[in-house]
Design goal:
Structural class: alpha/beta
Protein name: Arylsulfatase A
Keywords: Hydrolase
CATH topology of the largest domain: Alkaline Phosphatase, subunit A
InterPro entries: Alkaline_phosphatase_core_sf (IPR017850), Sulfatase (IPR050738), Sulfatase_N (IPR000917)
Strand order of the largest sheet: 5-4-6-1-7-9-2-10
CATH class of the largest domain: Alpha Beta
Mean pLDDT: 93
Number of strands: 15
Radius of gyration: 21 Å
Pfam family, one: Sulfatase
Helix content: 25-40%
Strand content: 15-25%
Number of helices: 12
CATH superfamily of the largest domain: Alkaline Phosphatase, subunit A
Distance between the termini: 62 Å
Family: Belongs to the sulfatase family.
Number of domains: 2
Oligomer: single chain
Shape: globular
Order of helices and strands: EHEEHHHEHEHEHEHEEEEHHEEEEHH
Amino acid sequence: MPQSGPARHESTLHDSSRPNVVVMHCHDLGRFLGCYGNETVATPHLDALAADGVRFDRSFTTAPQCSPSRASLFTGRYPHVNGVLGLTHQDFAWDLHPGERHLGGLLRDQGYRTALIGVQHESRARTDEELAARLGFDHVDAGMTRAEPVSKAAVDHLGQLVEGDRPFYLQVGFLEPHRMPGDRDEPGVMGFLGNHLEPDDSLGVAIPAYLQDTPSARTELAELQGAVRHMDEAAGRVLAELDRLGATGNTIMVFTTDHGLALPRAKCSLYDPGLETALIIRYPDGGWTGGQVHDALVSHVDLLPTLLAAVGSAAGDEVHGRSFLPLLNGEEHPRRQEIFGEMTYHDYYDPRRCIRTERHKLIANFSSAPAFMDPSQGWMRRCRPKVQTEGPASYHPSLELYDLAADPAELTNLVGDPDHAGVVAELSAKLAEWMTRTKDPLVDGAVTSPLHSKTMNALLRA
């Protein structure tokens, strides 16, 4: 992990007191970066950003899936409220409710020039024109998703954004390290390389604590490390261009991801490996630099109100998150006592909700689905979890409780242990109160998918 002191940056741009804002994000990363203690993955550019910025060690998404997590990140509202309870593409067809406001539109209302380059997965709108109108961007180039061309397009557009006397908001999304099909994949396997990446075991391979250490797992992790290294190189291009343009000092630079790694019992699960996210923020002119590290619980819904507060705007009472701007400014900031996570639909209906405190995690399961949804996207699974997954144990129990201090891999369900009955009761009450207060549709019963309505309408028209 880099330990060098903060770099010096000079602001040579417009004299507005409001900073520029850049949010870079990628798919399926979790905290799989060198700066988070992963010694076998090569991520020098993002490690350097963390060494020169502020790293959050306990940042969590609201949902362990692509679209719902991003919908929360960019609206500051939980998926079951903003309308994105599942994937937005194809016949999954979930979408933001018409009244939902995106960070891009909110900042444009504040006089910012706004641009979206690369991945977006928070809206069903698909053409650049539709996305610009729906989300509030002046410029959209969402036709590419792979990290290299996205980073080059972002670099090209930054030159235009720094001109003039108004601050800008740039949102950059990378596909990698999402799984993608490739000609080198074994039958029944979808790996991480596509046809343009190479595996990377140059620093070795480390298997996450919740997975079995097998030869096939090591092969898969080497692929993942290659995809992450490629993404880091793309992020480095954008960071280097900010420096070259003299824009680094007056720019709030945010790097994060949607959710955890696309490995069994991580992505598409409410265990910590599914909900954990990298979150690195740097703003040299604001003093958010120097390699600071915070261990306070932070939720993705907190980022939007934080950024709005930083540019002198208020998020409004409808936003579920709360600004952690005081924490960034070195001021007193009451610590979050809990974060909440959820999943409703992904590949199939699997409604789950959770509350996570400093010490414990309670998961409530509302269907008898398999114990975890497999994000391997193939028939063959090269990584296998340590927990038993055959027989009756392969289905959800009603409730799960984990002691995160004694059992960080969440392998032992403590529901039913008399010594933990009080914790189960306390967290159950808090989770139920949150669901009721935020008008979670699960309170009233099962949630119907957009495909259900489409199919029923087709039958009625026949």
